[in-house]
């Protein structure tokens, strides 16, 4: 039987979000209903609200979530009612050319629930953010979007792996393949950049250089594992990184801003045959110009990192286990916990730069 729950809706471009009653249908084949326990407030949700993702309003916001499976539809075998899960936006198909070549983290046919959640008052269909829509007491997702993890972890910590923290850690571990003794520079020390710093530290990097224009963010970066910091408002970051790496540049440079000027910094701050990883998300109008001879002459690799090139079924349980062992403190990413009706305020706090992550606890 369909259920009515509270959820946070973005009704139109740049309009304030509001809480509405939404209808969550019973799960159909391959679907699951999840009782949401916690959901992080991510910049991607703000982009949806601003119309930067699409114009398919109204959106049911929220996607960085953890909760308990309440019910499943026909054919679901990987999760069952009562399982504690992290929601992900990469439900791999297992059949596309990437999956069949043994690279499911590049799956080209990820999927979401077939049925739509709706507004109770009007019956209007909702567009769930990243196919999840977890600023709600319950949500409907594809069962493949549910990754079972150890229930000993706190929901407000676990949910962060659903997006930003996984993107950053994966950019270091999976895409950049940071190894023991490497030198790493991370440009941009928001949530994703700090996660890349934490991932580089976890991998055993000898030197992790954090670059940002905000001293508050650089101080936080040190708590995540940065060994050195560079304020690029005051210092040329390329020269600073080279000076800190014996004049050579870093083995891996992770660009977590998504702007042409910071990408150029990353490109020239890497060592010969080094790796640049772009995990910051650019906007459609941005263009990059580099001398092709420099691209050729410096060798190495220029990579983009999609969701940290993660495979949720592999990476989420591993990182939760590391957290529970005390080897990866995911709690450092949680600045505050808030109520469902405080999401609009959390968006405002993003602009001030004084939060790493606000997390809605239901």
From TrEMBL:
Pfam families: ADH_N, ADH_zinc_N. Signal peptide: none annotated. It comes from the Bacteria. Transmembrane segments: none annotated. The keyword Zinc applies. Residues 12-362 form the Enoyl reductase (ER) domain. GO terms for molecular function: oxidoreductase activity; zinc ion binding. InterPro entries: ADH-like_C, ADH-like_N, ADH_Zn_CS, ER, GroES-like_sf, MycoS_dep_FDH, NAD(P)-bd_dom_sf. Belongs to the zinc-containing alcohol dehydrogenase family. This is Oxidoreductase.
């Amino acid at each position: 039987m369909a259920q009515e729950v509270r959820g946070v809706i973005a009704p139109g471009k740049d309009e304030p979000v509001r809480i509405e009653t939404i209808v969550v249908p019973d799960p159909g084949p391959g679907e699951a209903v999840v009782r949401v326990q916690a959901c992080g407030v991510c910049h991607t949700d703000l982009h949806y609200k601003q119309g930067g993702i699409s114009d398919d309003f109204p959106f049911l916001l929220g996607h960085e979530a953890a909760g308990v499976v309440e019910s499943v539809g026909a054919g679901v075998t990987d999760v069952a009612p009562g399982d504690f899960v992290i929601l992900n936006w990469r439900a791999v198909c297992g059949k596309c050319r990437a999956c069949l070549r043994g690279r499911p983290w590049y799956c080209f046919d990820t999927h979401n629930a077939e049925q739509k959640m709706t507004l109770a008052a009007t019956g209007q269909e909702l567009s769930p953010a990243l196919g999840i829509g977890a600023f709600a007491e319950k949500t409907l997702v594809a069962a493949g979007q549910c990754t079972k993890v150890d229930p000993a972890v706190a929901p407000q910590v676990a949910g962060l792996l659903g997006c930003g923290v996984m993107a950053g850690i994966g950019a270091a571990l999976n895409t950049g393949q940071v190894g023991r003794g490497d030198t790493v520079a991370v440009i941009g020390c928001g949530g994703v950049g700090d996660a890349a710093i934490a991932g580089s530290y976890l991998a055993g990097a000898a030197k992790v250089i954090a670059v940002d224009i905000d001293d508050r963010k650089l101080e936080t970066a040190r708590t995540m594992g940065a060994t050195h910091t560079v304020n690029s408002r005051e210092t040329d970051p390329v020269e600073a990184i080279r000076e800190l790496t014996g004049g050579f540049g870093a083995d891996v440079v992770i660009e977590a801003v998504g702007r042409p000027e910071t990408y150029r910094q990353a490109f020239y701050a890497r060592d010969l045959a080094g790796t640049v990883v772009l995990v910051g998300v650019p906007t459609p109008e941005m263009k990059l110009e580099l001398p092709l001879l420099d691209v050729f002459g410096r060798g190495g690799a220029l990579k983009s990192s999609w969701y940290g090139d993660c495979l949720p079924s592999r990476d989420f349980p591993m990182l939760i286990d590391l957290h529970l062992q005390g080897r990866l403190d995911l709690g450092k990413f949680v600045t505050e916990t808030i109520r469902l009706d405080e999401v609009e305020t959390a968006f405002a706090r993003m602009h001030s730069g004084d939060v790493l992550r606000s997390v809605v606890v239901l």
